[in-house]
Specification:
By secondary structure, the protein is an alpha/beta fold. It has two domains: 4-190, Rossmann fold (3-Layer(aba) Sandwich); 198-335, N-(1-d-carboxylethyl)-l-norvaline Dehydrogenase, domain 2 (Orthogonal Bundle). It contains 15 helices and eight strands. The longest helix is centred in the middle third of the chain and has 23 residues, at 192-214.
């Protein structure tokens, strides 16, 4: 377990952040308030700029990075000797990065998983990917970070609350004490499955809500879609063994509301532009960052079909993304389904 003196801010814990995107960059800056941080990024030009100019030219380029953040393209160098490793790469890249880094993790490392998605090729949750890749001694030492948290607002030190879930709650509490600040509040949790499903499915619903807004269907439609999306998220999570109350919390309803309504949401933007007539390929090419919900939609649908869980919003969105349904026909597809009880 991490040194309890961290609670008092007395100990600087060697920390690594894997991923030079917006979320990895903001987490590195936040962690550097207490700890010395080594940031791993793939691009040499990004690493060079961070070390020379203390800025990430690719993401949050207006954010000054503290001297306590140094960068490297060498994954082994990034994680060797680190007591906390925050993994903030896209969900579809997580397996590859972990496979390369696992041999270099310290035996007492605590891993913080900050991605939100389901592996497209296997349909596995991120906790299952960690289980497959990590040596047995490290499999319990993973904490999953989720909740309503736009990177830019964290970087601007705007008040943010997130959830940290682990099957061993003491690890969640240790990371909670290490990362919490007066403006970044972390709550511990023990429902890893619920926190993961909330973080993944909210991106799917956000694309659907963005599509609804792009088609100017109105606020009634947005509210209905978000509410039914929350129901689908809960249905799948409970089937997998999650606590239904988790979906009323930060990693469920909280993250869903933010991602479906916030202008900084990449997944909402995908839906908006689809509704306005742009092609998916054009949208993704112009974004410059990963919208996790696109590939997660396919993975969630396959998982739901395998588990025989009904998720009509996700299923309909998959048809739109695949080009089999025109965006303008989404409302008809959903509203003309067989009438049913709301709680079923």
């Amino acid at each position: 377990m991490l040194d309890p003196r961290v609670i008092l801010g007395a100990v600087s814990i060697p920390t690594a952040v894997l991923g030079g995107g917006s979320f990895g960059t903001c987490l590195a800056v936040m962690a550097a308030r207490r700890h010395e941080v080594r940031l791993w990024a793939r691009r040499p030009d990004v690493v060079e700029a961070i070390n020379r100019e203390h800025r990430n030219p690719a993401h949050l380029s207006d954010l000054a990075l503290p001297d306590e953040v140094t960068a490297t393209t060498d994954l082994a160098e990034a994680v060797t000797g680190r007591e906390i490793v925050i993994v903030a790469v896209p969900s579809q890249a997580t397996r590859q990065v972990l496979e390369q880094a696992a041999a270099h993790f310290a035996p007492d490392v605590v891993l913080v998983a900050a991605m939100k998605g389901i592996e497209a090729e296997t349909g596995l949750r991120m906790s299952e990917v960690f289980e497959e890749v990590l040596p047995e001694a490290l499999r319990k030492r993973v904490v999953f970070l989720s909740g309503p948290s736009f990177a830019r607002e964290i970087a601007q030190q705007r008040p943010t609350a997130v959830t940290l879930a682990s099957t061993v709650e003491s690890y969640a509490i240790s990371v909670q004490e290490s990362l919490s600040t007066p403006w970044f509040r972390c709550y511990s949790h023990d429902d890893v499955i619920g926190v993961e499903i909330g973080g993944a499915v909210k991106n799917v619903v956000a694309i659907a809500v963005g599509l609804c807004d792009g088609l100017d269907m109105g606020l009634n439609a947005r509210a209905g879609l978000m509410t039914r999306g929350l129901r689908e998220m809960t249905r799948l999570g409970v089937d997998l063994g999650a606590n239904p109350l988790t979906f009323q919390g930060l990693s469920g309803m909280g993250d869903l509301v933010l991602t479906c309504t916030g202008d900084l949401s990449r997944n909402r933007r995908v839906g908006l532009e689809l509704g306005q007539g742009r092609s998916l390929d054009q949208i993704l090419e112009d974004m410059g960052e990963v919208a996790e919900g696109v590939k997660t939609t396919y993975a969630v649908c396959e998982l739901a079909e395998r588990r025989r869980v009904e998720m009509p919003i996700a299923f309909t969105l998959r048809e739109v993304l695949a080009g089999r349904i025109a965006p303008r026909d989404v409302a008809t597809q959903l509203l003309t389904r067989q009438l049913r009880n709301e709680l079923s």
